[in-house]
């Protein structure tokens, strides 16, 4: 075990665990999270920190670029499995797609391969899911070149993931019967500000 990991674990056990015995006794019996968060694997985006949640509060699925595969993409994907379990078995009440600024996945969509650099074949394959966000962003940039292409792509990718959630029959059903709501957040890594997507007006609102 490396010191950096052991020191962190010992601190957690002595402090957070030590001060929250009741919570951990309850968690030992099962989980009942109210929210699922689908976010990017990026190390700067930690949903439990950003939402100030405790263990047991949020059910998290992380992947490169906070992507949601379309429902009919039956490839045994872990995000799809996590969605199904969260909505159908755990009956969570909210799904948040948590996107973020300076997302490497969105930037990689525009990357031109350079000779000699490592070939990221799994990343490239996964990022095919984000291609519609790139297409929409190029159109948007064509109309207004003053926009920031990173932010435009991150926000279009967020909207793509939200739209794809609606292709899942059990998500539609849970929303129609009032069990669940879906939300889209774009989080600024440098300022901690968020912009929330308003699906009625199709605009982002600063919070
Ligand atoms: Zn990212």
UniProtKB/TrEMBL annotation:
Q: Name one Pfam family in it.
A: Pro_CA
Recorded hits in PROSITE patterns, A to Z, give: PROK_CO2_ANHYDRASE_1
Which UniProt keyword terms apply here? Answer: Lyase, Metal-binding, Zinc
- What EC number(s) does its UniProt record assign? 4.2.1.1
InterPro entries for this protein: Carbonic_anhydrase (IPR001765), Carbonic_anhydrase_CS (IPR015892), Carbonic_anhydrase_sf (IPR036874)
Example of a GO biological process term: carbon utilization
- What SUPFAM superfamilies does its record include? beta-carbonic anhydrase, cab (SSF53056)
Is Manganese set as a keyword in this record? Answer: no
Reaction(s) catalysed by this chain, per the record, are:
hydrogencarbonate + H(+) = CO2 + H2O
Report the sequence similarity comment from the record. Belongs to the beta-class carbonic anhydrase family.
Write down what this protein is called: carbonic anhydrase
């Amino acid at each position: 075990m490396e010191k950096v990991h052991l020191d962190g674990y010992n601190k957690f056990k002595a402090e957070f665990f030590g001060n929250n015995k009741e919570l951990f006794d309850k968690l030992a019996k099962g989980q009942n999270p109210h929210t699922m968060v689908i976010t990017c694997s990026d190390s700067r985006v930690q949903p439990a920190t950003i939402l100030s949640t405790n263990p047991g509060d949020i059910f998290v699925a992380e992947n490169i670029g906070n992507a949601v595969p379309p429902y009919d993409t039956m490839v045994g994907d872990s995000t799809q499995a996590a969605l199904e379990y969260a909505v159908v078995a755990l009956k969570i009440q909210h799904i948040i797609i948590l996107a973020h600024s300076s997302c490497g996945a969105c930037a990689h969509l525009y990357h031109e391969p350079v000779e000699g650099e490592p070939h990221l074949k799994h990343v490239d394959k996964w990022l095919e899911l984000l291609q519609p966000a790139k297409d929409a962003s190029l159109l948007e940039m064509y109309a207004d070149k003053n926009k920031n292409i990173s932010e435009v792509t991150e926000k279009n990718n967020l909207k793509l993931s939200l739209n794809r959630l609606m292709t899942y029959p059990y998500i539609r059903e849970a929303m129609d019967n009032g069990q669940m709501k879906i939300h889209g957040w774009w989080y600024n890594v440098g300022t901690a500000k968020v912009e929330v997507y308003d699906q009625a007006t199709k605009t982002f609102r600063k919070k």
